[in-house]
Structure formats: structure tokens, C-alpha cells
Structure to design on (223 residues):
């Protein structure tokens, strides 16, 4: 029932500390439901698929803040850079260089988060924690002008073991603090920690999240 969207949003907002940004993850959901969320005051929307975000963007109000949260291939960067505000899952220099190139073309600075692989699960995506330091070092040397590295993003293991989830978020927080100290001490824009989804956002917020990405708790289960 779409009429539940407003209720779910309000409930989440009421529980969320003010410094934590709520991103409504609308992948696979129709624009009508997104507009309902927008009308209830929700401005940040997260999408995982390039085709879908490009189809939806012209149908949403201009004030919508677009977050691309899925895995992004370099050859598709050009389609989203004209309008996207945030790219959450950056995990290669090749991708960063392409975002830089397209950002320059469009005259737009894109907020990027580096995805770290914190879960104890096999995945092709995300920078390994032990490689993050060297990765950030190389990225800083690229002197990118149209990419703004805003922080880190991660996904905890899909498990109901809360202590495990907590320890993974805690690791990401630690990596964030270390990176900030080592590479971004003079920057006031390396501020974001994107962690927490419908099942684990409370733990994420306790461990220092500044952006939570919530889909099913707002729009209902995806089919
Ligand atoms: C789908 C997705 C979410 C939202 O998941 P829910 O469990 O529905 O809240 C958050 N982050 C990423 C990267 C996703 O792909």
C-alpha cells in the first residue's frame, strides 16, 4: 500500500538523529511512490541501476538529490554525471578518472564515497580494508578537480548476528577516522560515512553513520 510510505518515512525520521541523512532507496519502485515520498519531504533518493535512474530522473522534481548507490561501470558514468549528486560505491581509480573526465565535460563536481569491502562475504566489489590506505594515497595524488571524495561507504554481512554487524561498521568507522587524519586533515568535505540499510541502520547509526540507505522499510519489500 503506497499510503504507508508517508507513515514509514515519518517513523524513521522521528528515530533518526538530526545529523544523519536518510536516503530513500527506490530501486525497482515506480515514480508514483517516489513522488509520494517527495511530497512527504524526502529529497534524497538512491538508485542502483543506470538505466533506471536515467529513466526516472526527468520525471522527478528538479530539487531531488540523486544518489547512485550500486556498482557503476566506467562506460556508463557519462549517463549519470549530468544530474547525479552522489556516487556511493567507487572502488577503482579507473572509475574515478572517468568521473573526473565526465565531470569536467559537464562542469559538475560529483560527491564520491569510496566503497570498502567490510563484510565477511565473497564479493567482487569494494576496496579491501588493508588496501584502503594505499588506495587513498594514490587517489590524492591524482589531484582530481571534479571528484570530491566525501567519505566511505560499506555494507555489513547479511546476518542476524548483531555483534558481527557492529564490528564491521566499527571497522569502517575506524578506517574513516584514519583516512581523515592521514589524508584529509585540512579538508572540511571528508565528512560522510554511508552505512546502514533497513535491517541494520540502528547499529550503523550507533557506530557513527552519517547516511543511511533505506529501501524496503520505506517502500516495502522488493519483488
Ligand atoms: C538495495 C540497497 C539498499 C537498501 O536495502 P534495504 O534492505 O531495502 O533497505 C541499500 N544499499 C545498497 C547498496 C543497496 O543495493
Amino acid at each position: 500500500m503506497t499510503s504507508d510510505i508517508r507513515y514509514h518515512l515519518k517513523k524513521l525520521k522521528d528515530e533518526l538523529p538530526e545529523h544523519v541523512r536518510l536516503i530513500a532507496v527506490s530501486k525497482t519502485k515506480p515514480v508514483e511512490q517516489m513522488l509520494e515520498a517527495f511530497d512527504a519531504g524526502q529529497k534524497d533518493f538512491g538508485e542502483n541501476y543506470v538505466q533506471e535512474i536515467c529513466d526516472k530522473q526527468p520525471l522527478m522534481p528538479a530539487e531531488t538529490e540523486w544518489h547512485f548507490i550500486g556498482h557503476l561501470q566506467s562506460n556508463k558514468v557519462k549517463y549519470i554525471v549530468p544530474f547525479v549528486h552522489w556516487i556511493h560505491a567507487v572502488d577503482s581509480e579507473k572509475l574515478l578518472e572517468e568521473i573526473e573526465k565526465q565531470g569536467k565535460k559537464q562542469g559538475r563536481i560529483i560527491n564520491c564515497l569510496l566503497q570498502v569491502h567490510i563484510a565477511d562475504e565473497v564479493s567482487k566489489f569494494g576496496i579491501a580494508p588493508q588496501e584502503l590506505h594505499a588506495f587513498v594515497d594514490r587517489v590524492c595524488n591524482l589531484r582530481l578537480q571534479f571528484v570530491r571524495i566525501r567519505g566511505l561507504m560499506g555494507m555489513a554481512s547479511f546476518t542476524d548476528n548483531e555483534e558481527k554487524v557492529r564490528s564491521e561498521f566499527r571497522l569502517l568507522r575506524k578506517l574513516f577516522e584514519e583516512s581523515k587524519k592521514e589524508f584529509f586533515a585540512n579538508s572540511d568535505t571528508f565528512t560522510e560515512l554511508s552505512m546502514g540499510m533497513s535491517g541494520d541502520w540502528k547499529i550503523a547509526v550507533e557506530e557513527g553513520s552519517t547516511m543511511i540507505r533505506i529501501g524496503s522499510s520505506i517502500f516495502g519489500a522488493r519483488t
About this structure: The mean pLDDT is 96. The chain is about 40% helix and 20% strand. Residues 67 and 184 are 23 Å apart (CA to CA).
